[in-house]
Write a structure and sequence with these properties.
The complex is a heterodimer. By secondary structure, chain A is mainly alpha-helical. In chain A, helix 8 packs across helix 10. In chain B, the strands form 4 sheets. In chain B, strands 1, 8, 9, 10, 11, 12, 13, 14, 15, 16 and 17 form an 11-stranded mixed beta sheet that branches. In chain B, strands 4-5-7-6 form a 4-stranded antiparallel beta sheet, covered by helices on one side. In chain B, strands 2-3 form a two-stranded antiparallel sheet. By secondary structure, chain B is α+β, with helices and mostly antiparallel strands. Chain B contains 15 helices and 19 strands. In chain B, helix 12 links the parallel strand 14 and strand 15. The longest helix of chain B has 26 residues. The chains are: A mainly alpha, B alpha+beta. Chains A and B meet through helix 2, helix 3, helix 5, helix 7 and helix 12 of A and helix 7 and helix 13 of B.
């Protein structure tokens, strides 16, 4: 396990180098200019040029790239043009909302997806199966922003049960924080649950056709015992993979939910940074998200060994 | 019987007195509360000298003040200045400053702060640069007096000091000198009724009442006059999704929301706890022609475009079919800027004259080359009017290459004359003809026509109001002949306020929350 871990962690470095280079080039090569956005619609080209010089944006691209590498190697992600603070601080401030949203949405997704898929498989072809899979199909099909806006309209505006949008830190007021998190977590979790439900169903179906399940049934075990005790754990490996991917997606991909529910997280940060061409922030968010992606995948691989004793990393 | 009638009368009078008192109390401004204002996003800076971004204008005008401000008819009135004396030859302006005005750091504002701040503003701001190009000397005479000597007579001194955008905010000398003009200020100390308490990007900007604020004695008047910070705190909340801003006003999570989509108007009208506010002036829609390079350097082609378009259906469509949100007007200054609004007849505006357009097109020698028309979907109204324009023009034989890009790309590319022929934007209120950016050679589109520039410089020098108006009318007629840009109609904006928000001034272009109080 030890050497495997070292090998995997060592592989992270070239991945991050490639990501850093690609994102740097992409964001600098697309048209647009942070200074023109910052100085406003009536700024003159002379003013814009003066500020570009002050920010070092008129230097050749390769020179800026070398500077970027140098800073990243010393752990410095640079200074945001727009936010007047180091990128690392901007990321740190937005990590909590994104992580809280990710965890809550993941809980909703797993709580809906895994039981739905398992029950549908256990009652294959029944009304339960068809009903649950139709709901999961809806989860895949309904656009996230549409669902979010309708949640706001019904539960906040019409019924007044929950706040429409905003964020309260879980450390300052946990109850209020949860109230603010209900709608975004359900709207994001519901769509993510669809994939988990479908994968759970197909894995369970596969496992339920195995010989040892037939043997368990022949021994007279109840349907619940067969499904949840004998089949469920063996169906988990692919499901955990999907949950891992979902987690990684949620870190950088909850953009729409964060914008609609006005949650000051990483997704919202990257969208505004792209629109403003705040290059250091875009680079920082992508680097951190890529690192999280790689580490989550590693964590998922390690989890396999815990779930299935047959898997070993020697 | 008589006694009971008398008693009934007395009771009725008592009820009326109590009810009147209650009504009076309900209308009496009171201090306290937090007003939560939802806006579009983050400001690029809280440095008023540094950017022309409207969100910076809105926010910084609560923290800082200039020597002059604008009254309800958009004319300059003193703010931090007590007044000004102008020498007979019009070349020396001596400003007396108000005494006892304190900065948020407790220091008294004096002439050295004014000199340092406006010197910085004169190097960075669009309006400051224009004014300081005419300044020969700028210095403090004593603690409360500053003197501005001009190279030549100028009509724009006071109005330039009064414009709210990119304005001549007075900072403490130490801050004005610490930050060079091209570098934005990151220490926010002003003399305004609110001081910055906290800025958490993407979460909120908190401004709290400045208890030592020294208000002018006059009544509130436009952007100026007396200012009272009734609310304890203004909390500016960036809410990028417009539908969420509307919902949050409906639920009461926000007290006020700015920049809403016009389709929310009917929904807000039905809400018993909130009210829609039509904001005017907002923008007149404009197609800016590249007069430095490419097809649109051809005046006949620009005139053909102007003759071809049918503006009313375009405006109706952009305004979502609601007449409350658009106005057909050819004046270059909107109706609300009464001093510069013109009522000229016979202008070739909104002609939708197909024969004339075809003739001009032929005279221009246009050979169906694609005209690169750049727009963005980030501002839906820009995209809508560009799309409708394309349809109308192509009916007449134009070939329009509509290039839809994001705003950051548009504002970058519009500075390069090789990259476009026409771009969309909006022209907001300007308070003096010399501040009309589309008539300057430095702004994208590059209006370099000698006749237009000559009148602009005459307007900058001429101080007689009647002669200035005559020049402006002459400039307006010339504008429709030279066609540096195409003027469409006026579009209005939508805001919403909870009914508990009281004494909000609906007549200013940008929102202000001094003198506003909360009924709770």
């Amino acid at each position: 396990m030890g050497p495997y871990l070292v090998r995997r962690l060592a592989a992270v470095l070239p991945v991050m180098a490639v990501v850093a280079t690609v994102v740097f080039l992409l964001i600098h090569l697309i048209p647009g200019d942070p200074v023109s956005v910052m100085l406003g619609p009536d700024a003159t080209p002379t003013q814009i040029e003066a500020t570009r010089q002050a920010l070092g944006l008129n230097r050749p691209l390769w020179e800026q790239l070398v500077g970027f590498y140098g800073r990243v190697l010393t752990g410095d992600l640079g200074q945001s043009y727009f936010l007047d603070r180091p990128v690392s601080r901007a990321l740190w401030e937005r990590a909590e909302p994104t992580l809280v949203l990710m965890l809550c949405a993941l809980m909703v997704a797993v709580a809906i997806g895994v039981p739905s898929g398992t029950i549908a498989a256990a009652h294959r072809g029944s009304a339960w199966d068809r009903g649950l899979m139709t709901v999961s199909l809806l989860g895949v099909c309904i656009p996230g922003f549409w669902l979010s806006l309708n949640f706001i309209y019904f539960f906040a505006v019409r019924l007044g049960w929950l706040p429409a949008a905003g964020y309260v830190s879980i450390f300052s007021d946990p109850v209020a924080a949860l109230r603010y998190m209900v709608l975004p977590a359900f709207s994001l979790g519901f769509s993510q649950s669809a994939l988990i439900a479908r994968i759970s169903r197909s894995c369970m179906l596969e496992v339920l056709q195995q010989d040892y399940i037939r043997t368990a049934r022949a021994k007279g075990l109840s349907q619940g015992m067969v499904t949840w005790v004998h089949a469920f754990r063996n169906a988990l490996v692919p499901v955990v993979t999907v949950i891992g991917i979902t987690t990684a997606v949620l870190i950088g991909g909850a953009v729409v939910t964060e914008i609609v529910f006005n949650i000051p997280g990483l997704g919202r940060l990257i969208i505004s940074a792209i629109l403003r061409r705040d290059y250091p922030v875009v680079q920082g968010v992508v680097l951190v998200t890529a690192a999280a992606y790689v580490l989550i995948n590693l964590g998922v691989d390690l989890l396999y060994a815990l779930i299935d004793p047959r898997i070993r990393y020697d | 019987m008589r006694r009971s009638i008398q008693l009934a009368w007395l009771a009725m009078i008592a009820v009326l007195i109590v009810a009147g008192g209650v009504a009076l109390a309900a209308d009496t401004p009171r201090k306290g509360g937090v007003i939560r204002v939802g806006n579009l996003g983050e400001p690029p800076a809280l440095d008023a000298h540094w950017t022309t971004a409207s969100i910076t204008e809105t926010l910084t005008n609560h923290i800082y003040e200039g020597l002059y401000s604008l009254d309800s008819s958009n004319k300059p009135i003193p703010m931090l200045a007590e007044g000004v004396t102008i020498s007979k030859d019009g070349l020396v302006y001596t400003f007396k400053l108000r005494q006892g005005v304190k900065f948020h750091n407790g220091k008294e504002m004096t002439s050295e702060d004014v000199v340092a701040s406006l010197a910085r503003w004169g190097k960075q701001s669009v309006y400051g640069k224009a004014l300081f190009a005419q300044v020969a000397d700028w210095k403090a005479l004593d603690k409360y007096t500053v003197e501005m000597k001009l190279k030549e007579k100028s009509a724009i001194v006071l109005i330039s000091l009064a414009v709210p955008n990119n304005f001549g905010a007075i900072y403490p000398k130490e801050i004005a000198e610490k930050f060079p003009p091209e570098q934005k200020v990151t220490e926010y100390i002003g003399t305004g009724p609110f001081k910055l308490a906290e800025w958490k990007p993407d979460q909120y900007i908190r401004m709290v009442r400045f208890d030592d604020y020294k208000s002018r004695n006059e009544k509130p008047n436009g952007y100026g006059g007396g200012k009272t910070a009734y609310v304890d705190e203004i909390r500016w909340v960036p809410v990028p999704e417009v539908a969420t801003r509307v919902a949050q006003v409906e639920t009461g999570e926000l007290d006020f929301a700015d920049d809403l989509n016009l389709d929310a108007y009917d929904r807000l009208k039905k809400n018993a706890s909130a009210r829609p506010i039509v904001s005017k002036p907002y923008y007149w829609l404009v197609a800016v022609m590249n007069k430095k390079d490419g097809l649109m350097t051809n005046q006949k082609l620009r005139q053909a475009w102007q003759a071809a378009i049918d503006i009313e259906p375009i405006m109706k469509n952009v305004a979502g079919g609601k007449p409350e949100f658009y106005r057909m007007d050819s004046s270059l200054a909107p109706v609300e800027i009464t001093a510069w609004h013109t009522n000229l007849t016979g202008l070739p505006w909104n002609e939708h004259n197909r024969d004339k357009a075809k003739r001009l097109l032929q005279e221009s020698g246009y050979k169906k080359e694609p005209i690169r028309f750049m727009t963005t979907q980030e501002y839906k109204w820009m995209y809508d009017f560009a799309l409708l324009t394309k349809q109308q023009l192509e009916d007449l034989g134009f070939v329009i290459d509509l290039q839809v890009v994001d705003w950051a790309t548009l504002v970058k590319r519009r500075n390069n004359p090789k990259e476009y022929d026409v771009f969309t934007t909006g022209i907001g209120a300007f308070y003096d003809p010399t501040h009309a950016v589309f008539l300057t050679p430095s702004w994208p589109g590059w209006t370099t026509d000698e006749d237009i520039l000559r009148i602009q410089s005459e307007l900058a020098r001429e101080t007689d109001p009647k002669k200035r108006m005559a020049l402006w009318e002459q400039q307006t007629r010339q504008f429709y002949d030279k066609v540096p840009v195409i003027r469409y109609g006026d579009l209005f904006g939508l805001r919403a306020a909870r009914n508990t928000v009281r004494d909000f001034n609906e007549k200013t272009e940008r929102v202000r929350f001094y003198n506003v109080w909360l009924e709770k």
